UniProtKB/TrEMBL annotation, chains A, B:
Protein name as it appears in the record: Nicotinate phosphoribosyltransferase
Gene Ontology annotations for the cellular component aspect, listed alphabetically: cytosol
Post-translational modification: Transiently phosphorylated on a His residue during the reaction cycle. Phosphorylation strongly increases the affinity for substrates and increases the rate of nicotinate D-ribonucleotide production. Dephosphorylation regenerates the low-affinity form of the enzyme, leading to product release.
Catalytic reactions on record: 5-phospho-alpha-D-ribose 1-diphosphate + nicotinate + ATP + H2O = nicotinate beta-D-ribonucleotide + ADP + phosphate + diphosphate
GO biological process assignments: NAD+ biosynthetic process via the salvage pathway
Pfam families: NAPRTase, NAPRTase_N
């Protein structure tokens, strides 16, 4: 596994740099924008995730000899371009929606201000990370609403690529999940990990009782026993007999959950295990979680559906050149013309508007001088908040967005931002975005 | 990025090893099976992909000090277990469907014969890799049929996690795609890479003509020019004016493709560019590819849909203990009892049955002594072929399945195996598997 991220890139980004260097246009100041034309799955809002990972990946976006050798051998770019790549280090400025923030159609989630060549090189990597991480976080955030305050653990590593699994654990945690099954996510990102035993462990032993005894000997009576390998009711009885009423929890991974959960709760109470919790893990998604929220379930383990974005495994984000300096050094706004893929050219800044109770009412996108200033007309828009923040300034990643601190900040930010959304944002049905995007 | 793959693993695999070591059951000889209960998306067949990557990952599945330190600090396992993990190296035997092979519900794609502890540790990693890579390969194989012989390039890196993108390029190539946009896949796996320019390149320049001139100066007249940034017809005219009739190809990324493609072909021919090819790339999937197969398109670029498995981003494969030695050293077949997640316990071998014209007719799964022998009753089944092959023997990865040689073999194997399937396998509608799975 190479630590350079530079080849996690589409071939054409390199040939564009090659052609632009030769044409003398590679160094034109340019603005690229990463955004989603619409919210995948007709979700009510999107959740930005992956920004911290992207910033870490940009710091490792260097063409060292192994990368250059591949490009040279394959004759992908000219020798002059190889020399330029050898010295490449992103030196531009990146504004963006801070990680954990919510977003809407057209929201400029990442704004890259740099030379054309620097900006275009980041396209593939930025989209890979944001598209997949945000898809997971957006699904996870819906599940968090559906669970109505009960904790959720992400346990879908086995249903997505082995490295995407680590990223998915991180994204779900930012969106409010409490823990993950993925150990690498625990090590890399400090996310709490959890898990006790699978059916195979019970099946390995002569009897369910022996399996439970073995697990308790290793993990203590506070552990979670999986009770549905054979007969669930018998499993619960055996679990409490072996562990005593201080048994931490039982896990149920099959059956008609609302019915089974009610019966297991009743049985646990009858057996005196009134403090023993119930966790369920049977192919849950936001809809089944919502259906169980009022049942005596204590926590949820969600696998497949969260790591594959619950029907929307990618956010459909794109990365477009919106402005550049021309040969005369003047800024030009640009956009592709084709109807169904129209984008809005020009530099932008963003304010989120609120009513006087603090509920978000609109995503205001101001065309003009770009982020950082006071956009024209902003004073007329009522109560507003600046959304964009500087993430990289002249090639230097700004503190606070990366590592464990970035994740913690993103998690709190997500909690705060979703609380500000109108109630319709919590709807699990397909529909319009919770607030409109307005261009000013 | 750590090169050890050992923590790409669910927490509970480690706690099960911990409890089983303490209980004295960890070393019981066991058989785990990786299979899909059904074909995701009601596909007609599945395509095995990821096997070579899994074998490479198993060779790097070692607990070195950084991994042990994490487990120690988090108190995930006992000190005795840490000592055991420090010496861990998979020493068992793995049989499996060779990469590129097709599969059906219940097909035992990977059979791990080892101690319980060794087998359980590989669960998460094996599922992560096979579930995601096979989902991509299965979708890609359908697109290959849909394209009716015209070449397909995978260009979806931006729509999936940055490392899953590399694996997806590999899986699509095995399933018959000709090339990828992903440079890391080119470097790691020797897959041909391709790409020329995006809309941003045209927009950077004062005019479309200047952009085309710049691209041709760098890449030659054999390049592919993207002609739909402004007006497609004008784009085609300008492209041929600038490049001459020897222009390699034009790419179209928007519009009503069947109509546009026909018009562009006519125009190219009128302009004398009769050898200039047409490639299309507008959010294609197997259905839109099929709709264009009879049009004068020369090649397809497929992005999002192939890397996210075209509606089925994961294959739903599971990894189950099917047999183990008990305390008395006797083999016991085991399976979880719950109805909707039933699996078939016991050791298995597999033969694919054929009619006398060489068309596959059934997937025969023999319960008994496991792979490698002559299963009882096999001689009665007519023309059959052994499907399982030894992938790892006593901890040693067998040659031919990994690296570039493994990929080349998998690609040929896939081509041969799909050719043997009944014609219904090529149907793009949802339905029953192309051949039934029969247990003997």
């Amino acid at each position: 596994m190479n630590t350079s991220t530079a080849l996690l890139t589409d071939h054409y980004e390199l040939t564009m740099v090659d052609a632009a260097l030769r044409a003398g246009t590679a160094h034109r100041r340019s603005v690229f924008e990463l955004f989603a034309r619409r919210l995948a799955g007709a979700r009510r809002y999107g959740v930005v995730a992956g920004t911290g990972r992207l910033l870490e990946a940009i710091e490792r976006f260097r063409f060292a000899e192994p990368e250059l050798e591949f490009l040279r051998e394959q004759r992908i770019v000219s020798d002059e371009t190889l020399d330029w790549l050898a010295d490449f280090r992103f030196g531009g400025t990146i504004w963006g929606y801070p990680e954990g923030e919510v977003f809407f159609p057209g929201s400029p989630l990442v704004i890259v201000e740099s030379s054309f060549a620097e900006g275009v090189l980041l396209e593939t990597l930025a989209l890979s990370i944001l598209n997949s991480d945000s898809a997971v976080a957006t699904a996870a955030s819906r599940m968090r609403h559906a669970a109505a305050g009960k904790p959720l653990a992400e346990m879908g590593s086995r249903r997505t690529g082995e490295r995407s699994a680590v990223a998915a654990a991180r994204a779900a945690y930012i969106a409010g999940f409490s823990a993950t099954s993925n150990l690498e996510a625990g090590r890399n990102y400090g996310i709490p990990t959890m898990g006790t035993a699978a059916h195979s462990f019970t099946l390995l032993h002569e009897t369910e009782r022996e399996a439970f005894e073995a697990q308790i000997a290793a993990l203590g009576t506070g552990t979670t026993l999986l009770v549905d390998t054979y007969d669930i009711e018998q499993g619960v009885r055996t679990a409490v007999e072996v562990a005593g009423p201080e048994l931490g929890a039982v896990r149920i991974d099959s059956g008609d959950l609302p019915v089974v959960v009610a019966r297991v709760r009743q049985l646990l109470d009858e057996l005196g295990a009134t403090g023993t919790r119930i966790t369920v893990t049977n192919d849950l998604d936001e809809y089944t979680v919502a259906a169980l929220a009022a049942s005596p379930v204590d926590s949820f383990g969600v696998g497949t559906s969260v790591v594959v974005g619950s029907g929307s495994p990618t956010m459909g984000m794109v990365y477009k050149l919106v402005a550049h300096e021309n040969a005369a050094g003047e800024w030009v706004s640009v956009a592709k013309k084709s109807a169904e893929k129209a984008s809005v050219g020009g530099r932008k800044s963003v304010r989120r508007a609120y009513d006087d109770r603090g509920v978000a009412t609109a995503e205001l996108i101001f065309l003009g001088d770009g982020p950082g200033g006071e956009p024209e007309g902003a004073e007329l828009a009522g109560i507003t908040r600046e959304v964009l923040a500087p993430l990289v300034v002249d090639g230097v990643v700004q503190p606070g967005s990366t590592g464990a601190a970035g994740i913690a900040a993103a998690r709190s930010r997500h909690e705060a931002r979703t609380r500000e959304l109108p109630i319709v944002a919590r709807s699990l049905t397909r529909g319009d975005p919770a607030i409109p995007t307005e261009y000013r």
